[in-house]
UniProtKB/TrEMBL annotation:
SUPFAM superfamilies: P-loop containing nucleoside triphosphate hydrolases. This is Branched-chain amino acid transport system ATP-binding protein. It comes from the Bacteria. PROSITE patterns: ABC_TRANSPORTER_1, ABC_TRANSPORTER_2. Residues 20-251 form the ABC transporter domain. The keyword Cell division does not apply. InterPro entries: AAA+_ATPase, ABC_transporter-like_ATP-bd, ABC_transporter-like_CS, BCAA_Transport_ATP-bd_LivF, P-loop_NTPase. Residues 290-303 have a biased composition (Acidic residues). It comes from Naumannella halotolerans. GO terms for biological process: L-amino acid transport. Residues 304-320 have a biased composition (Basic and acidic residues). Keywords: Amino-acid transport, ATP-binding, Nucleotide-binding, Transport. Signal peptide: none annotated. GO terms for molecular function: ATP binding; ATP hydrolysis activity; branched-chain amino acid transmembrane transporter activity.
Length: 320
């Protein structure tokens, strides 16, 4: 166990019983080699908690351990106080945990609608109840429900993967790098969407490479390094912590002021977004250009569609 007190370990966390509590986890893939070496995390009801850290730190491994996909060798995992250590993923889905993996997160040969059906394959009656809500959340998908997921852009596939997880009405959503491989504009959309899902009542753990954006939108975050907790605290505090900046954000302390100004812009966009309702992504867009300039919300200036739509046929772009 870390020498830090529980308060330091989960700095800024609310009091009360966490929804999800990973305590001192050791886990790995190969015998005798632990990738997680005493990782801890709490997620309280309604929170959006980020996990950042260098490549290979164990971020994806931690999410997989939370979702029963990597064997937990030591430590414990509880959901609403109930022990779920090493419970299988399908059991966890029934208990209200959803997971969107970092890669290969759609069934490419299935249509959008069929992908969503896979999200409720254990409770097929739920499909009719949920599908409209998910298409309200992702109107772009609703319009093209019979299109194969393999023909979609990276951003759209990410929406399908999130939509599939949301079909089961999770109370906890685990997201592994929802912005990976997307253009800056699409990345910001992914963050705003995540925040919106969270505001709709889903508690979220999000792993992100885009550490600054992650810290801007999350309530609290953990920095993982070599399978251990390195830092934790409210997102905005970590963003301005010189040690975190130096070690993990790759920015000189002198840039903090500029970062702060940019964070204010993004948070402003998020707050503007929060006054909207689920499903109006077409109307409200967060627009940044490729140099990561401030976010602008402008109803009159929607983002160009990813695809040239012609008579219902679409021409997917190769890459985001
Ligand atoms: N299936 C696997 N079998 C064996 N080792 C693995 C496997 N998956 C990951 N690892 C190893 O575990 C370590 C942590 O990987 P993990 O994917 O959890 O890191 P990460 O923090 O998510 O990195 P990234 O930012 O690159 O996504 C790495 O050394 C990686 O090589
Ligand atoms: Mg990863």
């Amino acid at each position: 166990m870390s020498t830090e007190t529980a308060q330091d370990l989960h700095r800024g966390a609310p009091s009360g019983t966490p929804l999800l509590h990973a305590d001192d986890l050791y886990a790995g893939y190969l015998p005798g080699i632990n990738i997680l070496q005493g990782c801890s995390l709490v997620l309280h009801p309604g929170e959006l908690v980020g996990i950042i850290g260098p490549n290979g730190a164990g971020k994806s491994t931690l999410l997989k351990a939370l979702f029963g996909l990597v064997n937990i060798r030591e430590g414990s995992l509880t959901l609403k106080g109930e022990d779920i250590t090493n419970k299988r993923a399908d059991v966890l889905v029934r208990k209200g945990v959803g997971f969107v993996p970092q890669t290969n997160n759609v069934f490419p040969s299935l249509t959008i609608e069929e992908n969503l059906q896979m999200g409720v394959f254990q409770t097929p009656k739920q499909f009719a109840k949920r599908v409209d809500a998910v298409f309200d959340m992702f109107p772009e998908l609703g319009k093209r429900r019979r299109q194969r997921a393999g023909a979609l852009s990276g951003g759209e596939r990410q929406m399908v993967a999130m939509g599939r997880a949301l079909m089961a009405e999770p109370s906890v959503l685990l997201l592994d790098e929802p912005s990976a491989g997307l253009s800056p504009v699409r990345q910001d959309e992914a963050f705003l969407r995540t925040r919106r899902i969270n505001k709709a009542g889903v508690s979220v753990v999000i792993v992100e490479q885009n550490a600054r954006r992650c810290l801007q939108i999350c309530d609290r975050a953990y920095v993982l390094d070599q399978g251990r907790n390195a830092y934790s605290g409210p997102g905005r505090e970590l963003m301005n912590d010189p040690k975190v900046i130096e070690l993990y954000l790759g920015t000189l302390a002198a840039d903090v002021e500029a970062e702060e100004a940019q964070a204010t812009e993004v948070v402003g966009a998020v707050e503007a977004e929060e006054t909207g309702t689920l499903g109006d992504l077409d109307a409200q867009r967060a627009v940044v250009d490729s140099s990561d300039e401030p976010v602008i919300i402008d109803d009159a200036d929607p983002i160009e569609p990813e695809h040239a739509v012609d008579g219902g046929e679409t021409q997917p772009r190769d890459k985001e």
